[in-house]
Amino acid sequence: MIVSDRKKDKTCIFDIAGEISGTTARNQHLNSYIKHRLEKDSITAIALNLEKVEAVDSYGLGVIIQLYKFTKSEQLGFVLFHANGDVSAMLNLSGLNEITTIVDSEEDALAHIASLDE
C-alpha cells in the first residue's frame, strides 16, 4: 500500500494505492500516518481517495472505521471517494456506506465537506 497526501484548503486528501489489508495496514500504520499528518496542519476534514485501491479486507475496513471514529471524536469531516467496483461492494456489504459519506469524485467529496461548514 502506498499513501500520499495533499491539502486543499482545510481538507487533507489521502491518495491510497494498493490493498488496504491486515498485512499492508499494519506495515504502513495508516492510522498513525494520517493522525500525524493532521497534527501538522490546521485540518478540518479528511478525504480518502480510493481510486487506486485494489482490495479491502475486514482488517482494512476496521482501519477505515477507526479513522471515521477518530474524525468524529475530533469533530472533523470525513468522506470516501472514487471507490471502484470491488472496493465499493465491500464498503456497502460492511454497512460503512450507512455511517459515512461515500461519493464518486474528488469534486463531490470537496462539495460535501464544504456543506459541513455551512
Number of strands: 5
Which bin fits the share of residues in helices? 40-55%
Strand content: 25-35%
- The CATH class designation is Alpha Beta
For the sheet with most strands, the description reads: 5 strands, mixed
Number of helices: 6
What would you report as the Rg, rounded to the nearest angstrom?
13 Å
Q: What is the H level of CATH, i.e. the homologous superfamily?
A: STAS domain
* Element string (H = helix, E = strand): EEHHEHEHHEH
Mean of the pLDDT scores?
A: 88
The CATH architecture:
2-Layer Sandwich
What distance separates the N and C termini?
35 Å
How many distinct domains? 1
- Coarse shape: globular
Q: According to CATH, what is the topology?
A: Transcription Regulator spoIIAA
Strand order of the largest sheet: 1-2-3-4-5
* Residue runs with pLDDT of under 50 for 5 or more positions: none
Given helix and strand content, the structural type is alpha/beta
